[in-house]
Amino acid sequence: MNGSAGARPWLVVPHWRDPRWTGASFLAGYVVFALLSPGFSRSPAQVLAALGTCILLDVLFHVFVWKVPLFPLSALFPALGVNLMCDSPAVWPFAAAGAVAVLSKHLLRARGRHVFNPLNFGIVVMLLFASGALRIGDERWGGHWAGAAVVTALGTVSCFRSDRLDLAATYALGFLAGSAALSALQGRVFLSLAAPATGAIFCLFTFSMLTDPATTPDGRGRRIAFGLGVAGLETALRFLEVRNAPFYSLFAVTALFSALPPEPDRGARPAPWKFAA
Questions:
Q1: 32-46 average pLDDT score
Q2: Where in the sequence is the domain holding 177, given as residue range(s)?
Q3: How many domains does the chain have?
Q4: Cα separation of 52 and 268, whole Å?
Q5: Which of 141, 173, 198 is the last residue of a domain?
Q6: What is the pLDDT of residue 152?
Q7: Cα–Cα–Cα angle for 255, 258, 262, nearest 5°?
């Protein structure tokens, strides 16, 4: 909402065409599904803990550090994502993962942008230092193909709007190629190695976390290299039987790409917010 003409707005709301609205709506719909599904084991307190922590921290940073009263749209992604991807019997791990995610967004920055995908950073830190309290909860989605199909369909729309569909496709093909390589090297059945690609966690990772526009390259060539890099490192970690390999792979590849020289067209990217009409 804006103030009077020429006055500083008291709240800067992202334009309705901002692709983050599509992504946030996509995740919010699944959180509602989680709350309404007894088998999902997600309580309102856990959802509110993540939402409250992420929104509060994001608002405080924007108001008091960046001096831009920005509507906390981006804070919804780690808050909703951690509820969909992770599992814990307690409430505090969801708040902790959300806090780490938002803090990484505002404190770990390079060339005016945050380095890591906030949700990925929060999950990786919790897996490394609080693995007994929080874990990836893929079994909560069940094994039915319909859940993954819906996530894939909605995620495809979200990636198309953010111009990251090529990145998602490159990673998915890289994952399948890696599964074929592991099958040949280890003598295991290809379908069993590729089975995670039919799950909802894989689809959420591919279409929501991996394709974050703020932490992935803008140029198509670098996007393809980024997707192949994540898939390749993940294949190596899977060969070494490292659990949660996709999350560690994305963390490492994001750090690597953030150290590369900026792309020629990066300076032309529009600001991530616009005044609401």
A1: 84
A2: 146-254
A3: 2
A4: 34
A5: 141
A6: 79
A7: 165
